[in-house]
C-alpha cells in the first residue's frame, strides 16, 4: 500500500544554520520502512531550500510504513556549505501527526541522525457544540511529555585551565545532549570547573543509550579537557569515561562505560630500622 507523507522541516534561526547540500530522509514504521529519499520540490529551486529560520514543506507518495516510530535525516555533504542546523521535523500521514525535535548541527563529522517522535496526535476534531465549549482542547491536553530530574557531575582533566570567578557560566560554549530510548534532550550548557552536581528538569528520554558532548563557536579559543561524566536519573546511574578534549565546532558521541580509575604507583620505602641495622659504626 502507498501513503501520502506531508513533511515539514524547520531550519534553525541561529547564525550559519543554512545549507546548500542535498537533504535526505528515511522513515521507519511498525510495518515497513521507506527507501532513502531526497527532500526536494519541483516548484522551487533546490538552492532556496533549508535557509536560516526557514520552514520548508514537501509532499511525497511512498510505501505505507504503518505507525511511524523513527526517522533518519541528514545531508550528502556536497555543496559550498556542508553544514546544517535542523530545528524540528513534522510528518503528517493521514490523520496522524508525528513531531520530531532535532536541534542538531549536522556537518561532515555527523551527516545524519536518527530521531524518535513525540506521542502522535490526531488531526483536530470538529469544533465542539455549545454544550462542550467548557472542555479544554489546548495542545497541553493532547500531548503529555514526561519530564524528569537529571543530576550531572562533570570531572575535568588536569590540563583544563581554571577560569576566573567573574566568568559567566551561563555563556559557556560547552554543552551536553542526553540520548535515550524515548528520544533526546535539548542542548544542556555545562558550567566549567563546577565541583557540585548540575541539576535540571527536562524531557525524560528513558534509559540512557549515549550522550553527545560538544562545543559551539565562541570568541575565546578554549579546549575543554573532560575526564568523565556521571548522570543520575531517578534510581539509575550512568557513567561515561570521556578522557578527551572537546574543541570548538566539534561534537563527540560517547556510550556508557565504567570510569577508569587512575593508576597508583607504589613506591618502595626503607624503614629506619632496616637502614640502621645495615650500617655498622666502627
From TrEMBL:
Residues 129-142 have a biased composition (Basic and acidic residues). Pfam families: PLAT. Gene3D superfamilies: Catalase core domain, PLAT/LH2 domain. Residues 118-142, 256-282 are annotated as: Disordered. It comes from Adineta steineri. It comes from the Eukaryota. PROSITE patterns: PLAT (PS50095). This is PLAT domain-containing protein. Residues 3-120, 148-260 form the PLAT domain.
